[in-house]
């Protein structure tokens, strides 16, 4: 096996906070601070993040489960 392919000594990738784009902090990774981590959590809990779904014709005609 080629040892050069397993060399992990390359330059480290600097991650950015997905909320504010500042440098990520190791303590709050991948965020820069507790505030940005809390903002992200609030978005998840408030359904701010959604996955788009395409409904089939069968699903459109069926009644909502209650």
TrEMBL record:
InterPro entries: DNA_gyrase_inhibitor_YacG, Znf_NHR/GATA. Keywords: Metal-binding, Zinc. Zn(2+) binds at residues 17, 20, 32, 36. Its cofactor is Zn(2+). One of its GO terms (molecular function) is zinc ion binding. Belongs to the DNA gyrase inhibitor YacG family. This is DNA gyrase inhibitor YacG. The gene is yacG.
């Amino acid at each position: 096996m080629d040892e050069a392919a397993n060399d992990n000594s390359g330059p480290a990738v600097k991650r950015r906070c997905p909320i504010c784009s500042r440098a990520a902090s190791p303590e709050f990774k991948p965020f820069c601070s507790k505030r940005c981590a809390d903002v992200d959590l609030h978005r998840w809990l408030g359904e701010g993040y959604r996955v788009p779904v395409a409904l089939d014709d069968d699903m459109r005609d069926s009644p909502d489960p209650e």
